[in-house]
Design a protein that fits this description.
By secondary structure, the protein is of the alpha+beta class. The chain has a three-stranded antiparallel beta sheet with strand order 1-3-2.
Length: 117
């Protein structure tokens, strides 16, 4: 039973899953859109939205907390200087998931997750 266990396992260990989400979030903030499987996009959404909400605070402590998850300094600067001010008045819902259909190789359902303008 999976009582009180949030999130999907994605067929990975906990450290591998954490690294996957960090890398996906970094790519999302760098390129502002990422094409991935639907399951990974659904797992990435709350992870990325928490980071944007944290970046909206804009203080040093928030930057250090976000720096634990986003370890690329350029992307962290972009998150705090460009992305967070864009959503200053928005009460959440910073990302959008668009379904793209199935991948040719293994028929996995693909999606595009992007930051809302």
């Amino acid at each position: 039973m999976r009582h009180r266990n949030k999130g999907k396992r994605l067929s990975r260990t906990s450290t591998h899953r954490r690294a996957l989400l960090r890398n996906l979030a970094t790519s999302l903030f760098r390129h502002e859109r990422v094409e991935t499987t639907t399951t990974k996009a659904k797992e990435l959404r709350p992870y990325a939205e928490r980071l944007i909400t944290l970046a909206r605070r804009g203080d040093v402590h928030a930057r250090r907390i976000a720096g634990r998850k986003i370890q690329d300094r350029d992307v962290l600067g972009k998150l705090f200087d460009d992305i967070a001010p864009r959503y200053a008045e928005r009460p959440g819902g910073y990302t959008r998931i668009l379904r793209l259909g199935n991948r040719k190789g293994d028929a996995a359902e693909m999606s595009l997750i992007e930051l809302v303008r």
